[in-house]
Amino acid sequence: MLRKLRITLAIICFTLITLLFLDFTGTLHAWFGWMAKLQFVPAMLASSIVVIIGIVIITALFGRIYCSVICPLGIYQDGIAHLAEKRKKNRYSFKRRKKYSYCIGLIFFLLIVFGFTGVAIFIEPYSIFGRFASNLFAPVYRLINNVLAYFAERWDSYAFYHVDVYIKSLPIFIIAIAYLLTITVLALVNGRWYCNNICPVGAVLGCLSKFAIFKPHFDEEKCVSCGVCEKNCRCSAIDSKKHEIDYSKCVTCFNCISKCKKGAMKYGYFKYFKVTEEPRTISDEGKTSRKTFITTVATLAAASTLKAQEKVVDGGLATIEKKKAPKRETPIKPAGSVSLDNFSSRCTGCQLCVQVCPNDVLRASSNLDTFMQPEMSYERGYCRPECTKCSEVCPAGAIHKITREEKTAIQIGHAVWVGQNCVPLRDGVSCGNCAKHCPSGAITMMPYDPEDATSPMIPSINTEKCIGCGACEHVCPARPFSAIFVEGNLIHKEV
Amino acid sequence: MENNISRKDFLKVVGAATAVSAVALTGCKSENYEKETTYSVGDIPKDKMTYRINHNTNDHVSILGYGMMRLPFKDDVIDQEMVNKLVDYAMDHGVNYYDTSPVYCRGNSEVATGIALSRYPREKYYLATKLSNFAPQFWSREASIKMYHDSFEKLQTNYFDYYLLHSVGNGSKDLSGWDTFQKRYIENGIIDFVQEERKAGRIRNLGFSFHGDQRVIEWLLDNHNKYHWDFVQIEMNYVDWEHAHDLSKANVNADYLYKRLTDLNIPAVIMEPLLGGRLSKLPDILANTLKQHAPQNSVASWAFRFVGTYPNVLTVLSGMTYMEHLQDNLRTYCPLVPCTDDELKLLMDIANKYLQYPIIPCTSCQYCMPCPYGIDIPTNFSFYNKCVNEGSIVEDSQSKDYREMRRRFLIGYARALEADRQVEHCIGCNQCVSHCPQHINIPEQLTRINEIVEKLKRD
Questions:
Q1: B457: contact with A, CB 8 A cutoff
Q2: Which of B370, B407, B431 sits opposite A317 (nearest CB)?
Q3: At residue A466, what are phi and psi to the nearest 5 degrees?
Q4: pTM greater than 0.90 (yes/no)
Q5: Contact status, residue A230 vs residue A88, Cβ threshold 8 Å
């Protein structure tokens, strides 16, 4: 009964969170955007005290229900382990929690506290799942959508529309695949191995769940020590011989209770008793496996001009070279990020904002210091004035919620002119498209030669008015590099 | 077009026709329904084509001429197989005038036309092509003559039945229509060269096609005694008849041009009888008015009958991309039933009402293309015009179905055009403006569309 309830809730949570990463229309986020905000690390980064206290209280009362119901990566592993169990039953055996897992947790939180979030997020469970969903599941979802859109177009329906499917950032894509393979294999072989050996959230909640008021426990009178509970515990938390459970590892999945034919496993109020710690050093086996894990990840991670044509005949389309991103000294972060520091110290790299950006502006960074954290670029579109989607979905407070009106006054960067690319000078045609499309009226056209009013008109940028939205960069006819581009601000300013 | 008739529509047509006969029998309003000799469905007769006689060479020219400017494309090249099929069908039904140019269809129309027609005896068809020396690099005498000679080779012939100075009156970059004409034909002596060629028999009929600067056509016709124009190609349809000048100040009304040619006894070849297809895609309310007068006839057929009604018209060119276009036109012209005075009056009324719509007078002729900055100008215009015709551009954000209409517009726009081909990339360089025979201020119109798109996107 309890197990079924757990499974139902877990499936609902998992589906909704996954859909948040898949839905590109933003419809779902209005209803279920809060689901992402329940995630432990994002909530911590966003200083959502209520959520953190809630999770702490629930864990202290009922054990690591968070891990079995709310954490999408945990549920993903449950699903995979479930498949593995179909092929071979009774596959797990008890292993005590290793001390290093607490060390990993400690290091993780220290890194975050000292602002090295960019490093910490490599093992953060929610964002690992986010990268799966956004890099691997979302493209599939979009391709299906495009098939529907194809037919919708032919049936003159506007229910579906085409969206571009492309790899937004190759390194992140490769990392997502590597992680997916690793986590999947680990889950197939060892159940929730990641959750009790690597996961920092698992370590923190594990400390708490030891003292949980309600927990599963043996009914010594009924137990016949058949060991079925131990063999079916994905967390390897049950020592059936000694009738002990390592509560720091147990995620209260209730599988043991439903497996026990004798009714010897119960869930309820249970007096705390100390698991006798065997005074033993970390086994060599443990060392190797962790080492292997990290090496695997590291290896896989490491593996990761248009001149106006003279018109001669009628018709046809000119070939248009794709735009290339210019080298920006400071990356551009979305309005609401407050500053580069705020963004990089809070962003978990879950890619939720990348997924919802309707203008294809956001993509994961490939720079080492901000690796996997999104940044903006304007080759495929620009940060349109009406859109505040990324600020609405960010669960970690890396992008604070802003209104449209606020957005018009936030300078996230400033436009810079590159004279040698500017078509009035280069090709001798009149242009001014940047000025025409600037939503804040920051660009005016002026004669190149102050002495000669008839000389080519070039843009003059009023940096005080510029908000860094990139409209100018995007519509600039110079290709592959625009003649005007946005340089990010370290600290976002008000204009 | 209209003839893609489903079973349901067919029954409707039959039903309507029955109703028509019933009305006709009772004797009231029968004059509206006398067009029963044209067919919306069923076989197209092969021997009923209306012919006009060119008194210069005694050519019997079919009133329907095939414009080879809008040939079907497949995978970005001309679909030659389909072109052959279309030409076969046209020949089979009596079409004997084929009009091409070295610049049409990205410069491939002449070759395709040559391939399709060379399968027939040369005397079975009349071939028209042009000296399309638009780009300044072709203004020299040598380059123009080379273009002329190349046409023979591409069209696999040793004479042209009709040869035109292409689009005189149209300006070019920085030059007026008049100055451009001087550069293209007078200063390089080409106007005398083509006279010689006519004398030599390689050009049987010499003429010109005209758009724009009125000074040029006046000068050419004033010098008719010297040049002896055998025919002149003008843009004529029931909107341009009295309103070409209203659509663009640079254009001359067709009624004036037609009368001028008739007075000089010069046969008129008609281009843009449908305004690039726009007169077959009238706003719903106007289309319905025409349908009410003759439910079984296509909207396009009215435009073709209108121009055919005038006796000095030698042939009416239609750029028929699809078999359905060709069939519909054949139904209209096999044989032609001229418009009655009432019908002409009705069309003038439709034209007046048509002008009330903010339609962009683009005929999708592709002369402006390729835009060096990648914009697909005609598709942007046709998308906009389609929305105007459907009345699906919503201005009032308070209206009931605003959200839905906005969604349709934006999704429809993205479906019609890739992002790189959309209006926001127009930099206003104005290079296209001089190419437009309709004298549309293209950048201005693109900006207008951009404002609509931008407003909807921001809302």
A1: yes
A2: B370
A3: -65, 135
A4: no
A5: no
